[in-house]
Design a protein that fits this description.
The complex is a heterodimer of chains A (113) and B (114). Chain A has no helices and 11 strands. Chain A is mostly beta strands and 113 residues long. The chains are: A mainly beta (113), B mainly beta (114). At the A-B interface, strand 4, strand 5 and strand 9 of A face strand 4, strand 5, strand 9 and strand 10 of B.
Chain lengths: 113, 114
């Protein structure tokens, strides 16, 4: 059974720092891995999607990497800002399971001014 | 812009009542999903559909049902609401394709069963 783990559960950093959020999964048979952002009381906003054949994806100050063989993904946030404060979730789409996602429990990020 | 909308955003209901949560997407996606989000459990799959008249049970389907009469809508029904179903519910959609595809989520419905 696929399990997805995110460490740390919470992270507090001063503004301007570069930071890394971690996501690990137990079964490498995945189609893709997706990173989401969730603001309090809001829905999930898709940040980056990495296909299983890709190693990384970039969007602005965000860079996500994927190492399928080791079951790991990282989300790198450059020059963090208070507006980056949110919960970040990773989810894997299992191979041949028709779009169903398995989620980690998220990392709650707080960026202090 | 295409979007996925849920209604209502907040709902309070009594134990034993039937409740229906609406989900409408304009992406024209075949795949639609319902998840619930609870502290300590993260997001878990309730039901999903791969097209009109297709419905499937997810990890936590007991006490819930869905129906798919068109591409755009996948309403979630709680047959007889229980306090254990107090949660935040999210609807999502995606387009099936080689290598999977990006999933899009609604804003969520916060349901309280009293």
């Amino acid at each position: 059974k696929q399990e997805v783990t995110q460490i740390p559960a919470a992270l507090s950093v001063p503004e301007g720092e570069n930071l890394v959020l971690n996501c690990s999964f137990t079964d490498s048979a995945i189609y893709n891995l997706q990173w989401f952002r969730q603001d309090p009381g809001k829905g999930l906003t898709s940040l980056l999607l990495i296909q299983s054949s890709q190693r990384e994806q970039t969007s602005g100050r965000l860079n996500a990497s994927l190492d399928k063989s080791s079951g790991r993904s990282t989300l790198y946030i450059a020059a963090s800002q208070p507006g980056d404060s949110a919960t970040y979730l990773c989810a894997v789409e299992i191979y041949n399971q028709g779009g169903k996602l398995i989620f980690g429990q998220g990392t709650e990020l707080s960026v202090k001014p | 812009d295409a979007e996925i909308t849920q209604s209502p955003r907040h709902k309070i209901t009594e134990t034993g009542r039937q409740v229906t949560l609406a989900c409408h997407q304009t992406w024209n996606h075949n795949n639609m999903f319902w998840y619930r989000q609870d502290l300590g459990h993260g997001l878990r799959l309730i039901h999903y559909s791969y097209g009109v008249h297709d419905t499937n049970k997810g990890e936590v389907s007991d006490g819930y049902s869905v129906s798919r009469s068109n591409t755009e809508d996948l309403p979630l029904t709680l047959e007889s609401a229980a306090s254990s179903q107090t949660s935040v519910y999210f609807c999502a959609s995606s387009d099936p394709g080689a290598g999977g595809s990006e999933a899009f989520f609604g804003q969520g419905t916060r349901l309280t069963v009293v």
